[in-house]
Design a protein that fits this description.
Elements (H helix, E strand, L loop, with lengths): L1 E6 L11 H14 L3 E5 L8 H11 L6 E4 L9 H9 L4 E5 L2 E5 L14 H17 L2 E5 L20 H11 L3 E4 L6 E5 L2 E5 L15 E7 L3 E8 L4 E8 L3
Parallel strand pairs: 1-2, 2-3, 5-6, 6-7, 7-9
Antiparallel strand pairs: 1-10, 4-5, 8-9, 10-11, 11-12
Helix pairs in contact: 2-3, 4-5
Amino acid sequence: MVLIAHISDLHVGAPNFKEDILLEAIRQINELKPDATVITGDLTDNGYYLEFLQAAEYLSDLRGPHIFVPGNHDARHVGNETFEDVFRYRKGTFVMDDLTIIGLDSSEPDLDYGKIGRSQQIWMEEELERASERGHFRVIALHHHIIPVPKTGRERNVLADAGDILYSIIRKGADLVISGHKHVPHVWRVEDTFFVTAGTVSSLKLRGKDINSYNTYYITEDSIRIVLNQVQGERIELASHSLRE
């Protein structure tokens, strides 16, 4: 079995950032011993260099491989240029055992909406094809959601090229697409692909009675189980599906 932990929207530097909640989430994830932890953007609130350094210090406590992609808040105040100084890359492919994770940069400098762009889309399609040839379970990680998320109000910040990216993902057979941005956990299934958004792990910008959370994905040759982990609450199964129906 492969276990992936997924956290998003830390918002380090914001007045409503909760350090104690983030540290507790990291402690819980370390106890789970995931094969990889994916952080899908908005590590900072303003894209300031010192915020990146602080976020990196917190996340250095994560054990095992961890993978970063930037969010719209990380692209503020020239953060789009300094993100790589701290986290080394903005997109990339990460291969382990029978798993390929493709990280995409959906951020645009000083804008809240996202975009993948044609060149990155072609690269993603090629990486999905390579992963398919290896027989790997294929995961796409990005900050912006591709399909609108319920209970988040009027849609403003979906990917500008969501239709094109959705078409490529379905046509090339990604198994799982994970994102953040809206601070609301949700699961959509489109054909054979799961689209999962994470809540915010450590910001108090929460809707209704939601509390801080992160996701975990339990993947076997035959099945996937998607679990919502409330940092100060309970564990809730969001979806479970056989991959050999």
